[in-house]
Amino acid sequence: MKTRILMVCLGNICRSPLAEGILKSKLNPERFIVDSAGTGHWHVGDSPDPRSIKVAKKYGIDISYQRGRQFSERDYEDFDLIYVMDNENKKNLLELAPDETSKNKVRLILNELFENENVDVPDPYYGGENDFEQVFKLLDEATELISKKF
Ligand code: 4NP
Question: What is the model's pTM?
Answer without folding.
Answer: 0.98
